[in-house]
Amino acid sequence: MESLKSSFLQSFPLNTLNPHQKTRKPNKPPPPKILCCLKPDPWSLSSGNPKNLDKPKPKSKNPKNPLPDDNARRIIKGKATYLSVLRRNQGSRAQTPKWIKRTPEQMVQYLEDDRNGHLYGRHVVAAIKRVRSTSGLREGEYDMREVMCSFVTKLSFREMCVVLKEQKSWRQVRDFFAWMKLQLSYRPSVIAYTIVLRAYGQVGKIKLAEETFLEMLEAGCEPDEVACGTMLCSYARWGRHKAMLSFYSAVQERNILPSIPVFNFMLSSLQKKSLHKDVIYLWKNMVELGVGPNHFTYTVVISSLVKAGMADEAYKTFHEMKNLGFVPEESTYSLLISLSSKNGEKDKALNLYEDMRAHGLVPSNFTCASLLALYYRTADYAKACSLFTEMEKYGVIADEVIYGLLIRIYGKLGFYEDALRTYSEIERSGRLSDEKTYATMAQVHLSFRNFEKALDVMEQMKRNNISFSRFSCIVLLQCYVVKSDLAGAENAYQALSETGLPDATSCKDMLNLYLRLGLPEKAKAFVDEIRKDGIEFDEELFLTAVKVYCKAGMLREVEQFIEEVTVMEAFKNVPFVQAFFTVMNGSTGNENWFVTSDQSGAVAVELMLTLCLASRNEIKTMKEKIKLMLQTRIGESVANRMISNFAKEGDMLTTVYLYELLMKLGCEIEDSARACAISMYGKQKKLKRAKEVFMAVEGSATDRKVLYSSMIDAYVMCGREQDAYLFYKEETTKGHDFGAVSISKLVKALTSCGKYREAEEVISNSFHENLELDTVAYNTCIKAMLEAGKLRSAISIYERMISLKIPPSIQTYNTMISVYGRGRNLEKVVEMFNMAQGMGLALDEKTYTNMICHYGKAGKVNEASALFSKMQREGIKPGQMSYNVLINVYAADGLYHEAEKLLLSMRMNDTSPDSLTYLAVIRAYAKGSKYSEAEKVIDTMQKGAISPSCAHFNLVLSGYTKSGLMGEADRVYQKIFSVGLNPNLESKSIMLRGYLDLGHVKEGIDFFERECRFISPDRFILSAAVHLYRSAKMDLEAEKILNSMNDLGVLFLNNLEVGSRTKTI
């Protein structure tokens, strides 16, 4: 390229021309004249150029020389008219010839050349075909001089250029051009070289093109704008941008101005490779040279200006484009709208959109997505919804990005069901492929505390082989943190670390998880790790890290950490850092400073107290420092709050120590702190101490309800539910209000220990006193009556709840479904379920399972199965309990095929079957009289390391005995021993019933004497033995058993009959 540029500049020096000599303009070839149509018409005589171009044309419009054919003039006029119409219809680029006048001699020659209806003469067409015929031969298999030997001296220079232009292969162009230069009629011309340059440029033979261009210069041909433009377009086409710009610089120095299409070609090529700086440079050069840009130029330049971050220049160019009368394309508007949206220029973005709509342009998906993102960031959700409606109106099909934004907007608005529906629509349409959509839906689930569904979405993403980005790893980590799944969270954090240094928020989430799970050692190690990795701390992460060190009593690490942070620029003006530094150095006496330091001072004192309490037994000075801080007003307030915090964390020793220290120092203690102390004493089984705390404040308490709640807790934790009830009676007699929380706790405690009468009395008294109970309290009361078997009372409590307009929760409806289900009122059960749906409550697995169970009890197998499928469609993953319930429903009707399919589905969904699952499957086979298959299920259990119980074998035993297969039954009975079990009373009863009903007297007596002699007295077994002995005429033995039954008070069953089933058969 450098040699080309050098030759280009030096071959014809600009300053060597004689100033007095008239500058000769380069010979420009005349515009090509296409002299006939490509397809001849049936009445055409001729179209083409005269052979002798130098011959003068006729002087007059109507030459007097007669045509050789008297009818020729009519044909010529008709042909001219036809071609004129054809040009108008096809536009300016129509390949139709302009009609010319010919002398009679020219016409005769034209006819002799057989050019009638052809673009070129016969010999030219033959030459074109001859050269093209070599395209099938390999390099070196032909010699162009031999191929074209018959055309020597027959082709003019112009005709040789035509043959050259009509070649399709660059090799034929190269070889013919070499032959062409050997002909006598050849003269060096920029036209021929341009044709060759174009042929090379089209196939990417840039080196050959450069060599040809140099040859042209050496031949003395002055390159024009067409030749230079051809070279520039070749460079642009094949991405040789460095060479292109270098060549363009040489063109500029020669004062050659490329055409606007060439500029557009270069601009477009540069932009495709994201070379926006070069696009802008070329654009500015165009403006300086005064080249008039067209619509395409503006479109490309504005796009590059936007992508290069030159917003002001982009807007300026956009307005310039409009002022020149060009209507911008939708893509141009879209880029500027997106730019305005990202810059937060809402008004500018909306004005651009309105201007676009005024021109009748339909917005694209990208434009709509930019506007939706803008509306989301500015919380203008109403306009976002209206834009989506407008998209539907104009037929703009929403893509996955737009649906993802809608999901995010629905999540912000709290429209959980709408977000779920939108996500389902994307999934059904098969357009779910973007990881951001999955992550967004998972975030919506998390915002509604539904971490299981959030994890299901992320698992679905993994199953679909969609790679996790940094954003997805962060969302996955949040899911595991909310779920408190430590292993999952650590794996997600590791995956996040592989994408780069984790962000401060993710680190904070991990630390809080360790603290929540009570893993201080892991928390300390994690803080050390992120400090070592150089994670950039924000204020929240720093606060959490200091909290970890303080809880562990690591004074030295805290001091070192504070020293590191205080020198950091980002933390110099952070109030908390200054406050903690002040407290750590013992300057807690200046309380006015803490008052003006917002909440930072209180947090600093709290953390310092935490550090001192954690290290009070190791560092002697810490106890004194605690006392100093507690004697300040801010320390006293913080300590009261810390007592509650320690109690929630279950730190009994610290809670009690801090409470007693406050008492000792005579500090003011809040009722909430006293309540926590009472609860802690209850956990320590120190009921007497708890009573003392309560009695000390009973007369002066401002919040009695919290104290009552704690006392109930203390009594219950000490196993003194009756005393809790008596405490309630005593306090209510004094006219004190226990509050909803205390009532709920007391009722639950009394119900749990079976004191239903007392629980009912508490409920009745609360209603009689018109206490304001909340939803949780009503739920507890309804459940208490359900467990007591008082269904009418439960219904009455629910009706009272509704009449008082207390909002029911999903737990309310779950309990009421159980209440009506126990009363066999399926209609009301369905009504409760539908009400829960109508209220817009998120139905959980428990609700669905409860409904499936009651459908099964009512024999509605199809309804139960349909509801199970609906639960799965709603995105609720069935658990072990749900599968077991539905398998039991199938088992009740003997639908073993369905039970087996459900067992298979259970395994495929990574839900492990348990002993109850297999018991239900065995029941299904036994009900369907498939006893051998039922027995195989027991073998499958054993292979899965699940030990069968007697209940599993008893179902198989019962099936065999009912079928009269006592031999098989005895074999299964013996199998019970082989698995390490002893047959239970039911096993023996089943076997004895079989022998009795089938009339196998001898075998029955043998079984009784062998298996049933030393078991606890059972009415059926002893009665059956009496009947068997009597049937065998062994009256003495029968009489002994009867006397034994009388002595034990066991009633004899007279209705048993030996061989009852044999008689039936």
TrEMBL record:
This protein's UniProt keywords: Repeat
Endpoints of the signal sequence: none
Positions annotated as PPR repeat: 189-223, 224-258, 294-328, 329-363, 364-398, 399-433, 434-468, 503-537, 774-808, 809-843, 844-878, 879-913, 914-948, 949-983
Region (Disordered): 1-73
Domain PROP1-like PPR stretches: 278-414
Biased composition range(s): Polar residues: 1-20
NCBIfam families: PPR
Protein name: PROP1-like PPR domain-containing protein
